[in-house]
Amino acid sequence: MAEIELRGIEKRYGEVPVLKGVSLKIQDGEFLTLVGPSGCGKSTLLRIIAGLEDQDAGEVSVGGRTVDGARPKDRDVAMVFQSYALYPHLTVFDNIALPLRTRRLSFAQRLPLIGGLLPGRTGIEKTIRVEVEQAAAMLDVAHLLHRKPGQLSGGQRQRVALGRAMVRHPTVFLMDEPLSNLDAKLRVQMRAEITALHRRLGVTFVYVTHDQSEAMTMADRVAVVIGGELLQVGPPDELYRDPRDLKVAEMIGSPKINVVARGHWADDRPILSAALAPQTKHLAFRPEAAVLTTPTAGLPGGTVTDLENLGSDIFVHVALRDGSETVVIRTAPDEPRLSLGRAVGLKVDAARLLQFDEAGRRCGDIEQVAA
Ligand SMILES: Nc1ncnc2c1ncn2[C@@H]1O[C@H](COP(=O)(O)OP(=O)(O)OP(=O)(O)O)[C@@H](O)[C@H]1O
Ligand SMILES: [Mg+2]
């Protein structure tokens, strides 16, 4: 069992608070992604779980056991970094074998030449070979074992780094942006490989990324960290549909959710004005939660300023009437062609309109108001 529990984790560097009381329970075998903008404290949190950094307050437990004060190697966790951290002078085989040799061979046995003559070494090396070859086969690098990291592609290096973490059979994998050095295509491919690896190993994965699409596509649950606070944690579709905070709504989803100041539409008497909560300050809706109509006086609308044709969808940018605000609406490619500069009306699906108060907290749930 290796569920992870964080209770009130705080961390500051000098005067600057970086983590402001993060509490989070990660289930055994779960794939959890931590997502947030650069500098929000993701790596710091991961390093605290790994034991590479000490928190100022709060507790970490792994598998029901408090690990505060335990050294990284005693925590049964393996960490994979953005920079693969492979040893350039060692072959792929030796890189993967390294954690096993460090753990199983004595100092003398590890010495070159002499080590090989010492009793016990041959047998241990044999089992290490089997385990390294198993991991390498699983990650499709078995044919590269004799090469040095410099002779590998980025994706291959990343797989070797995963292999080195795997042979330790950790109950928790911690990954800090492991794919950010790869090009876009390889990144998408490696995403699928890492989730497949997770299914096969069945252990807990905590995966840090600032790429929301990576976070959404890989995880069982996504935890959104912004400014050192955990704002929301839940399954990807829940964060997308039901963000509790405007910052979460804006973090998740591409193109970004549309946000319009309530005042902007006050005169348009738009969308269910009666159902808006008194404290509502921001109206937000996803690009697919509205349709374009013929322009109608008194209803929201604007002018087409840009068309992004992705083949499968066309994202229409609409500058709202008398305002600097622009919204993006998804349309199907078979809908009638729009041209730039054209006036359009806008009809937002009331059930998918989200309301947020001045502080950015979700309010005035339409379903509840309507019920
Ligand atoms: N050793 C350190 N000393 C001082 N400040 C630090 C140290 N390590 C991190 N910080 C600061 O703490 C904050 C959080 O850093 P962290 O590395 O956790 O961010 P992150 O969310 O991983 O960002 P990124 O997405 O860019 O990797 C940043 O403002 C960073 O500058
Ligand atoms: Mg980081």
Task: Report on this structure.
- Helix content is 29%, strand content 29%.
- The chain is α+β, with helices and mostly antiparallel strands and 371 residues long.
- It has two domains: 243 residues, Rossmann fold (3-Layer(aba) Sandwich); 102 residues, OB fold (Dihydrolipoamide Acetyltransferase, E2P) (Beta Barrel).
- Strands 6-7-8-3-9-10 form a six-stranded mixed sheet, sandwiched between helices. A five-stranded antiparallel sheet has the order 13-17-14-15-16, with no helix packed on it. The protein has a four-stranded antiparallel sheet with strand order 2-1-4-5, with helices on one face.
- Helix 2 crosses helix 5 and helix 2 runs parallel beside helix 6.
- The chain is elongated.
- Bound molecules: adenosine-5'-triphosphate and magnesium ion.
- The site of magnesium ion has 3 residues, from helix 1.
